[in-house]
Amino acid sequence: MPGDSTALVGSAAAYCILLFIQVGLIAPSGRAAFQAVVATVLLALYVQSVLRVRKLPARFAQTATALFASGAVLTLVMLAPTQVMAPYLQAISHASDPQSVPMPPAVVTFAYVAMGFWGLAIYSHIYRHALDAGLWLGFGAAMAFEILLLFVFSILG
What CA–CA distance (Å, rounded) separates 35 from 153? Predict the structure, then answer.
């Protein structure tokens, strides 16, 4: 990926907009905008921090651009499965007995899970190259960001 500021800003904007659209399929637009902006800012801060720890801060623009661009593409691909899963996700969040909510079609659930694993593989590969590290460190960096997102959004509600 190019390491210039135009590509970085463009890919971050695309990532944020597509996250807003995806989360907007499930949540109110204010909440979707908040989550999209927080996730975008957190990714930038996380990448900057991880690269500083490895003493490779000059790789920020290229790494962040690659992560934002690939995240945007994956989010775009996930819009259709999210649209199908939206009624299920909304119902389960309001159900007193979540097991009583009928599951979405298996093919959609599989697509969701498969894309999650594929995304994790892509992000691991990007981190591995950016950090000049092995696959396991790249995987650990990718997983740590996902855990960070879960932690932050569980606190923020």
Answer: 8
Q: Counting beta carbons within 10 angstroms of the beta carbon of residue 47, is it exposed (0 to 12), middle (13 to 18) or buried (19 or more)?
A: buried
What tokens appear for 156 in the block? 């923020």
pLDDT digits (tens, 9 = 90+) for 52-79: 999 999 999 999 999 999 999 999 999 9
What b-and-e string marks burial along 109-137, b requiring 16 or more CB atoms within 10 Å of the CB?
eebeeebeeebeebbbbbbbebbeeeeeb
Q: Could you give the CA distance from residue 127 to residue 66 in angstroms, rounded to a whole number?
A: 10
Cα–Cα distance, 68 to 64 (Å, whole number)? 6
CA distance 72 to 18: 6
Task: Return the structure tokens found at 100.
Answer: 């009583």
pLDDT of residue 91: 83
pLDDT for the residue 69: 97
